[in-house]
Each structure stands twice: as C-alpha cells, then as structure tokens.
Amino acid sequence: MQIIKDETAMQRLKNAYRIVALTGAGISAESGIPTFRGEEGLWKKLSPQELASFEAFIKNTAMVSEWYQHRREIIHHTQPNNGHYALKELQEIAPQFDLITQNVDGLHQRAGSTDVIELHGNIMENYCINCNQRYSQDEFDELYRHNPNHVPHCYCGGLIRPNVVWFGEALPEESIEKAYRVSQEADVFLSIGTSAQVSPASNLPLIAKQHNSYIIEVNTSRTAISDLVDLHLKGPSGEILPLLMDDYQHLINGAERFR
Ligand code: NAD
Ligand code: ZN
Known about the structure:
Elements: H1 7-15, E1 18-23, H2 26-29, H3 48-51, H4 54-59, H5 61-76, H6 82-93, E2 96-101, H7 107-111, E3 117-118, E4 121-128, E5 134-135, H8 137-146, E6 160-164, H9 173-185, E7 188-192, H10 204-210, E8 214-219, E9 231-234, H11 237-253
Parallel strand pairs: 1-2, 1-7, 2-3, 7-8, 8-9
Antiparallel strand pairs: 4-5, 4-6
The structure holds nicotinamide-adenine-dinucleotide and zinc ion (ZN).
C-alpha cells in the first residue's frame, strides 16, 4: 500500500540528502511502554510530572526509585516494534540519516540503530548525585534488592539516581547541540510519536522548518505542531513507518509505480 501520495512529498523524499527523525514515547507505545500523556500514564495515581523531578526524588526517594524500577521492568520485557525497525532500515539506505529520540528505553538501539542522539538519557543507567559514580543496571539492582527501604546509596553515601533528564533539568549539552545542528541541515524531518509539548525537543521540527526542511509528522492524534507540518500521516507508527519505508525505497530506486 502506497502511503505517500502527495507529489511534493515524493520529490522531497526522493531528493533528500539528509533525513532526520525525532521520536517520542508514541513510537514505543506499540511495544507496550505507556506514554506519559496517554491513559496509562499514571502510576499509583501520580502523574509523571509529580514523579519525574529532582524535587520529587529528594522528597520521595523510595517512591521515585520504585517507579523507575517498575518502568525498567516493563521495558525489560518488551521488544522493538516495526516502527523502530523501519528507522533502522532508513539509516541503512538514506544518504545521511540522524535519529534523535526523547525516549529513555533504548529500543532504537535494540532494533539496531546506531549513533542515536538520546536527548533525555537512558533509564538503564544510574549515577551518584554526590560523586557522579556510574552504576550499571545490574549493580543498581543489587543495591536496590539489599536495601530494605529501596533507597540505593553510593559507597560515598550519596543517593543514586537514574541517568534521565527530569522536568526542569537541562539536556545533555552535546546531544542537544548535535540535535540542533542536524535539524538545521535536514532536507526531510520526521516527527514521530511525540506530542511536541516538551521543550527544547519540541523546537527541533520548527527549527528544521525555518531551514526549509519538509516536515512529515507521524502520530495517532493531532499535536501542537500538526498545523505547521507539511504532511501529517495519521496512524500508529508501527504501521505507518514500514509503509513509508517501502515508498521511500521505491522512490530512490525509481520504481515503476511512482512514474
Ligand atoms: P508524550 O507522552 O507527550 O506523547 C506521546 C505522543 O505519541 C502523543 O502525541 C500520542 O498521540 C502519540 N502516540 C501514541 N501512540 C502512538 C503510536 N502508536 N504511534 C504514533 N504516535 C503515537 O511523549 P513525548 O512527546 O515523548 O514526551 C514525553 C516525555 O516522556 C519525553 O521526554 C520522554 O523522555 C518521556 N517518556 C519516555 C518513554 C520511553 O522511553 N518509551 C515513555 C514515556 C515517557
Ligand atoms: Zn557517590
């Protein structure tokens, strides 16, 4: 089934040197990982906004640690879906491709994508807030299990936190700088499964647009940027992206059906 029917979209994709994709929680929804703003976004009646901050971590360390262990448990039992695999394939055939994600689940890497720009860190990594010592998930699990209060401490006494960016925190400088740079250079920019509400990631499609990129949005709903994009493809990314990949492959191979 052909999904790109718009002539301009076809031309822009066909001629694109650099394609950039920005993904959000929506791309992992079909793998079974709840989004923050979806119906399953609440945990023990608390919203992510009430849990994912440094203040919450200091005030309710055990609860926040428990929430992260709960999310890791979910992620541990999931697999990448066809949306993740389609982007891995895109990396292999596009002249230049950059993948920027707001997700912390590592599913792009598990699907085989490389050089993923992780804007919000990775949930499987942890570090001490006092001395910066890194802890692998296995090391963290060990400390978590042996601490009756579920508040793992570093050998220096500091609290150990997940290596994710919380509300109100700055993004890793290197990642956001690279994300801005490649977005400016994008010929085609794909915004996938993100509500485009969390800044600065939400600025990236707009920056791309200012630099004459062609913006394609893939989402099950309309979002804050839907009115600004060039093409809105409505539907689950696990279904839309493989179709998009198929079209792209035909376009760059100059196949019959597009003549
Ligand atoms: P969000 O929860 O704000 O928005 C998710 C978006 O995905 C919505 O626009 C929704 O309509 C769309 N969506 C839902 N199912 C979809 C599907 N099958 N296909 C395509 N689109 C679908 O997510 P966000 O914009 O990424 O921002 C929330 C923040 O939460 C991010 O910073 C991220 O770090 C964090 N987060 C990460 C994960 C993860 O790593 N998997 C999960 C939840 C939240
Ligand atoms: Zn320490």
